[in-house]
Amino acid sequence: QQADIVIENYKVGDMSRYGLDYESLRKLKPDIIYCSITGYGQTGPMKDVAGYDMAIQATGGLMSITGESDDMP
Question: Alpha-carbon distance 47 to 30, whole Å?
Answer without folding.
Answer: 27
